[in-house]
Amino acid sequence: MAATGAGEGIFNTSICLEEATDGNPFVAQQRYIRGFPVDELWQHSSFIETLLLMFTGDIPSHTSAALLERLFVGLMNLGPRDAGVRAAMTAGVSNTAEEHLLPIGLIATGGENNGAGEIKPACKFIIKNSKTDPIQCARDLMAQPRPTHAHIAPGFGGHYGTIDPILARLAEDCFTLMPDSRIFNWCRTFTAEIAACHQGLLAPGLVAAVCCELGIRATEAVAIYQLCKAPGIAAQGFEQLRHPIQSNPLLADEDYELT
Amino acid sequence: MKTMNSPDLESLWQRNRQHIRTNIGKWFPGEDVIVRGRSLFNDWVNELSFIQFNVLNITGRLVNERVAKWIETSIFFTSYPDARIWCNQLGALAGTQKTSPVAGFVLGCLAADSKAYGSRAQYLSVIAVQDMYQQYAEGQTAAEIVEGFPKSRGFPMIPGFARPVRVNDERLEPARRLTAQLGFERGPHMEMAEDASQYLLDTYGLGMNAAGFCSAFLLDQEFTAEEVYRLRVADVASGVMACFSDHAHQPENSFLPLQCNDIRYCGPAKRSLLTARK
């Protein structure tokens, strides 16, 4: 079989190199992730370390890996009432083909309201403002008129009209891993100030803060958010496949008001 | 080491590497598009309805205006703007979460690829009616065919017959009227399906549903099960997008918001990981 030409290709990537076998140019005999052979990675690198390697280009420090690990575990399952989890559960209980459940949950969690669509604006907000006075920044924002329920800033808002206590604890447990982080200290102070209007850090804001600290670009922080939430979406959605569709009855007629 | 692949596969991979070979059509940028051998802009756009064009694209076949009208009208039957229906719940949810409308559309259509309803249920119904007809043509009675299906809670489980909500299907009579008004004669698959439906009604109180009726009709129009599946992928889209639009300006978490105790937990009792690991 003819060998492929060097330098040819339809995609450019700095993440993955594949070397073909001698006999078949369609089969890879070795794969390198950011230069490291996959064998070495699966033997000696953790999931989080390899993830950070792919997204940042470098082997992470222990602290960076610990930080992302904590974020992943903390956001892994935001519960059946989270939009993404709920979407997957609704699809699961209504017998949607199982291979669609995870994509359904990820798509549902992609919106601008406390979803993946809020990640990039949150990153930009944090990067732009984290060099300013967080208290003044908070006060300036609180003084501006905004619609009810609107987030005071991307990544920072209310959770059913108040501050999400679980997210607040997770954020603090993440921030304490890097006590000298300018970004984390800024977020902590800013969040404390906006508590006066019953708003706090949201999951997209926490992911944005962590990604900014780890040097993950705003666009790619969207992927980190989706990856964080994927396991809980999958577990909760797939669990529902075992329940009959009747276990999740449609809303009763008398509760559906046609105006 | 040389891998042991068949020569046909090897040549296929090499032939297809950086090469597309097809007869379905081609875009000539700045000029035209050829679809199944004819010009999109000079021929098809003047001659076909969208449904006819869609069928042509997907199956390679031209259907007449009557069949196209039937297909188009049948999509009304799956376009309910009721956010209680599972795919529409996701459309509404997507609206409140401010996903893109395309995401809302995809969510709903993907969710409706379900064994219980929607496009996959339609596909399974076509396969069921196809298999039932095969038995019918070989001489089995409707009763024998129906009783050959597995039962759940005493009711035969036949795709296309009865519904997840277990009420009479309000779409069935409109579907029958549509078919009659367009002048279609009852074909062999429909004869069998109506026979089976009557037996089910007489014996179990519930007959064919609209999916079963549509399956029989489309089989009589010589569509395959795979073609029906491909043609009906977005049947729920109109209802999904209605629900998306209805909730797009609503605050997050405003669609059927759930309290913590609205979820029935049936897992392990609360415990400490630190204690469990000792």
Q: How are the strands of the biggest sheet of chain A laid out side by side? A: 1-2-3
Largest sheet of chain B: 3 strands, antiparallel
Distance between the termini of chain B: 51 Å
Q: Report the mean per-residue pLDDT of chain B as an integer.
A: 94
Strand content of chain A: 5-15%
The overall pLDDT average of chain A reads 95
**Helical content class of chain B:** 40-55%
Spans of at least 5 consecutive residues with low confidence of chain B = none
Poorly predicted spans of chain A: 1-6
| Number of beta strands of chain A | 5
State the assembly state of the protein chains. Answer: heterodimer
Coarse shape of chain B: globular
What is the count of DSSP helices of chain A, taking H or I runs of 4+ residues?
A: 11
Shape of chain A: flat
- The helix content of chain A is 40-55%
Order of helices and strands of chain A: EEEHHHHHHHEHHEHH
Evaluate the radius of gyration of chain A: 22 Å
Taking the sheet with the most strands of chain A, its summary is: 3 strands, antiparallel
Describe this structure in words.
The complex is a heterodimer of chains A (about 260) and B (about 280). Chain A has about 260 residues and is mainly alpha-helical. In chain A, about 50% of the residues lie in helices and about 5% in strands. The longest helix of chain A is centred in the C-terminal third of the chain and has 23 residues, at about 220-240. The model of chain A is unreliable at about 1-5 (pLDDT under 50). In chain B, strand 1 (about 25-30) and strand 2 (about 30-35) form a beta hairpin. The longest helix of chain B has 20 residues, at about 120-135. Chain B starts with 6 loop residues before the first helix and ends with a helix. The mean pLDDT of chain B is about 95.
